[in-house]
Amino acid sequence: MKKEIVVSGIRSTGYLHLGNYFGAIQNYVKMQDAHECYFFVADYHSLTTHPDPKDLKKNVYRVVAENVASGLDPEKVALYAQSDLPEIPELYLMLNMLAYMGELEKVPTFKDKVRLQPDNVNAGLLTYPVLMAADILIHRAVKVPVGKDQEQHLEMARNFANRFNGRYGTDFFPEPQVYRFNNDTVKIMSLDGNGKMSKSENVNATIYLSDDDDTIRKKIMKAKTDQGPTVPNAEMPDYISNLFLLLQLTASPDITAHYTSAYNNCNIRYGDMKKQLAEDMAAFVKPIREHAAALQQDEQTIKRILKDGAEKARISSRATIEEARKLIGINYYQ
Ligand code: TYM
Hints:
With 334 residues, this protein is mainly alpha-helical. It folds into 2 domains: 5-179 and 298-328, HUPs (Rossmann fold), CATH 3.40.50; 203-293, Orthogonal Bundle (Tyrosyl-Transfer RNA Synthetase). It contains 14 helices and 5 strands. The longest helix has 30 residues, at 299-328.
């Protein structure tokens, strides 16, 4: 039986953090055996913020190394750089003809960027969801493992797929769906309680896969808490449930059960809970950090992974673009 096709990408804009790990990479690893997987470094997407050319290669290599160190096996999946597949910008161009200003201007991530970087509202930012749709549709993927923050982009990818199918009278592109384990997409919040953990905002409230043990301890001990609940079984504020989520993701179930019961009985000591979480988190990140650091020293291996990945991925991207050209009518020599 043909395996289901999976695509997902990570921008090469900075150090990867727990949000990237639990929201995305961990799921990639879980999917790599039973699916046909295409995972890539979204280096074109990172150009919207004009990174220094000197940094790009290092950033791309780091994303590859951190994915592999997290358990992704480049023998089982195609792991490649977006810019190594020329079919992606070609499909992006085709889809741009079916994407409308009005809908692109309404996308919340676009509105955020306009607010955050008013001096650089470029067309690449506006059409960011179109490029993302091209990344996914180029392999005709059906499942896309991403964190909660990308759900709206996936909805747009489905719209563009349907619009293409409608216009060219086919069912060529399947509708890509967000892939959820346990029916829930993950959102890891920043440790200061302000929004999601992200690559560029508040470094001290973000735990990176490259952080050493002491840095992790310090960041967790500073995480936002409060006086604790005053009535039994109170609803948790989001910054507290975020700490519980991290505990659940890294500590043994009896530890999480212990602190949950302490919370419900109003006798939780957040200092103790954070100490425990800091130790479990440090132990969790250490092997990933060490493996990723070693891999980044080994440029030959990274280059081989990227080349092999692009070669595998281009088999499917070429087939899609050839067919898409024919459907559109770009078919002059047959
Ligand atoms: P990026 O690079 O911001 O993030 C990569 C992946 O990590 C997830 N993620 C999170 N999950 C939970 N909690 C968080 N705090 C958190 N922060 C990040 C993201 O949901 C994502 O899955 N536009 C995408 C990259 C992309 C892409 C694609 C993804 C480009 N083309 C095609 C899927 C398919 C982005 O900027 O992700």
